[in-house]
Prior knowledge:
homodimer; alpha/beta; TIM Barrel; five-stranded antiparallel β-sheet; 23% strand
Amino acid sequence: MHTFEIWAPEARTVEVKIAGKSFPLKKREDGWWMAEVAEAGPGTDYAFVLNGEEPALPDPRSPWQPKGVHGPSRLFDLAAWNDGKASDGKWTDDGWRPPSLDKAILYELHLGTFTPEGTLEAAESRLAYLADLGITHIELMPVATFAGNRGWGYDGVDLYAPHSAYGGPAALRHFVNACHEAGLGVLLDVVYNHFGPMGNFLPKFAPYLTGNHVTPWGDAVNLEEAESDGVRRFFIDNALMWLRDYHFDGLRLDAVHALVDRSATHFLEQLAAEVHHLGSSLGKDFVVIAESDLNDPRLVWAAEAGGYGLDAQWSDDFHHALFTVLTGEKEGYYEDFGSLADLAKALEKTFVYDDVYSRFRKRHHGRTAQGLPGHRFLGYIQNHDQVGNRAKGERLGHIVSLGRAKIAAAIVLTSPFIPLLFQGEEFGASTPFQYFTGYEDAEMGRLVSEGRKREFAAFGWKPEEIPDPQDRSTFERSKLRWDELAESPHRELLTWYKKLIKLRQRLADLSSGAPGSTRVRYDEQARWLIVERSRARVLCNLGSESVRLETGGRPELLLASDESVAIDEEGIALGPDAAAIILLAG
Amino acid sequence: MHTFEIWAPEARTVEVKIAGKSFPLKKREDGWWMAEVAEAGPGTDYAFVLNGEEPALPDPRSPWQPKGVHGPSRLFDLAAWNDGKASDGKWTDDGWRPPSLDKAILYELHLGTFTPEGTLEAAESRLAYLADLGITHIELMPVATFAGNRGWGYDGVDLYAPHSAYGGPAALRHFVNACHEAGLGVLLDVVYNHFGPMGNFLPKFAPYLTGNHVTPWGDAVNLEEAESDGVRRFFIDNALMWLRDYHFDGLRLDAVHALVDRSATHFLEQLAAEVHHLGSSLGKDFVVIAESDLNDPRLVWAAEAGGYGLDAQWSDDFHHALFTVLTGEKEGYYEDFGSLADLAKALEKTFVYDDVYSRFRKRHHGRTAQGLPGHRFLGYIQNHDQVGNRAKGERLGHIVSLGRAKIAAAIVLTSPFIPLLFQGEEFGASTPFQYFTGYEDAEMGRLVSEGRKREFAAFGWKPEEIPDPQDRSTFERSKLRWDELAESPHRELLTWYKKLIKLRQRLADLSSGAPGSTRVRYDEQARWLIVERSRARVLCNLGSESVRLETGGRPELLLASDESVAIDEEGIALGPDAAAIILLAG
């Protein structure tokens, strides 16, 4: 027996179709329809018929789409692991609590390219490696079912159904449990700002979208108009499901700047409150982290202080400031950055654009983050977007010297922010992370391939230079090559990352996010920079000449990125592209 | 000599045309163009030519459009009254300070219909009447130049130019000064959420609008995209001009719910901060009041508490709750109201919809106003919208008995809110306030006339029943008839309003806006209601039978709406549609 429930406030009739038989649903006053079907249970395939119109449609809240976005939905018993009666396992993570965000080091992981197999099961075999690396949380790129077998995951349409190519709901449950057993927290990337262009049947069920606001993906999600209660519930119930039923430790919200909500209680405030409330009731501290392009501290201000009460947000300003200093790039949004002064401001004040005019945006941008700890922000030098949105998906190590990659790591991993690494960054993977899709619809595939070429034509790229997203080799090329761990430059970088992580975790000076805990000195011409973190100093030479920097105190050398680093009682010498971390005598 | 300045960031060339001669402007880096023209000065007519394209366009910041929205702009010396050298007068309001909002009683005034002449000069002759009535501030409906000679004013396109049909800039300056001499404050209604459909040349100068958000009037104002700095400046400089150069005491912002702004500092917060900053520098307390349909307390929360820091906002919930109780109407948004319980909640908690499901909106709406004083909200039973947006522009007195009109006045004028009256309300004007326009463009006129008929067809009205907005008689019919003051029912109501105002101003119990200062008892069936205001009680009988209400204490009768009211030591009797105000012995 199973009770089917579906929200379709404007439908005239709703039936659920199972093995060729139709069962009518009854409407409740709140726009939900219900039917108990005796012959349905876990494993049953089903689809909904609205107003008698074929073909039948998958469930917007489908727990499983084994045959993809166009196929039927399949019932899955999410509660089966709770009572220990399931044949395929049970939860063994009672009492698991991940480290809090002020102690966290995150690792962004894309299931399709993390292993050759591209599955949840295969990823489990690498968990010990990640724990040994010292990271505390995996941040899993979206797992919601999207059209085609391969993709980044941001074009999901069945938000409740873990993607079948990764292994579906059973494999995801197993994976989260295995992470916890390995001592790793897991955050999930969820996309609530749009649906993918293929297989999105939700607008047939209810007004999930509105034409009154335009986003980069078309119509906006309806968060403030008629029937928006149900739309908000759709997303928030999804968030609660991942945390309650799949045991995720928190969520990363994709691109919240694309949400438009003038309601008196913003969607993000409601979402954060409900997630935290669920956590309280379960004795857990679930976290909600937003990707935001707004430079708006309100996202992480406490609700009592007029904020939305999110736990943290991504901070691209730090990335852009660091990346442009390392690479000298000036295209696109990088035109707003490039000086050591910008990098210093990012480290000291988080937002470089804190109500400052942006040439790229052609307007003032942002607001001061004053008073907020660094641990409300994520700091990174690589992530799926910053790598993958380049024409050829080059990682930092493909653009700069090993020395500069080490400097980048040192600055990120001693920053006041929550460090985030992108899979393979820690060993300087030779493989790129390119933009790939796997649309089976030929027309959609053509549109994506041509759109990608057109996008980069504006930056002077020739069409043939751009990897074709639809070509399977673009996906294959983006997979990590784990055999590289044995090769010398990769091994050297991995050792550097491990040492930095250990040092951050040992020395509170380097992990503090307290306001004012970071001071930066630099010489824009000579290209050196010293990050002062309480008694610790991170010294970086980005110039082409060796420098000698006076440090005061009696410095103890904690880490040196290469053999050029030499220390004496009054200072420290660094060759080009070298970094060192020292501790001054208390 | 005059220095012409114009913001046109994307123009290739800009010239100013004066008496057939063209003078080129020079571009600055910030997108502004400038030219000093020796032969220009106050009174000079001019227009701008962009990219060499004729016809020349009026100045978006034109101080005067003597020939309407399509004519040339004319220079006007706004500073002339400051140094006392002008021939037509000087400011005589040094030291003028209006009462603060907690002591205010506002009067909404439409210049075109307030007097037979429809001018600022004619309105001046009625200032003594308004002062005698006891109101403290006039709230002037928009004066910015719009297409045609008559209209409500919400379709302005030259936001800096006082409408010529009202008398233009000189008459407006004179009017504000005269108000202050009469002891009256003056607030100005400004429209920053859209421009009128005729004569809006602003998009030719800069991206004032964006197609990324849709409003009831089409494209939204660009507050968050490229070049939005200049758009925000356009509106905020306008606000500052009215306060600094025309000596207005504050502003009423039209329909702020139609603004879309995801910037880290919301446009309204910036506007309020700049207005208050100007006030501080001049030693004045300028106020900013928003019309808002959001039921969002954030608008009036202090900026330090995460709010926008506005001084007050309109509150339609109180109107709708009171209006439906008085009239029994149920159409449109009135379906969400109708019970004495709603009215009680409005009086006690301001927002009836404070995160409650709204059938009309088909979603939850609003947020609690807890902790905010009533003086952050305007309370009214009539305003230009609530009267004028009815099919025939009927006032309350055209729909209900004199007794009920008196009850309405008693509830409004003893409420914790800032009372607002609509012109003529105080004497129960027989004249309606209908929707009228005066477009000279035939096609536009036809669209407006037909649109109005279509809008009301949805409510079952026949086309011939709807007054034609373009017909001059619709405008004429809406003018107040001051000879009615001598007629008995009008005189009786006027006396009632004057007594209520005097009582509110004498008795702090009745004007307090402190949170918790209002308690309401009622009987939904017997249709009586008692508003408890500290030691005062406002007793209203909305039933068809006489009632006897126990009051406790030793009541002193302060005001009775008719002869049915009788008081003794233990209670008070009221006939149908009667109200009384009593004071309990301390």
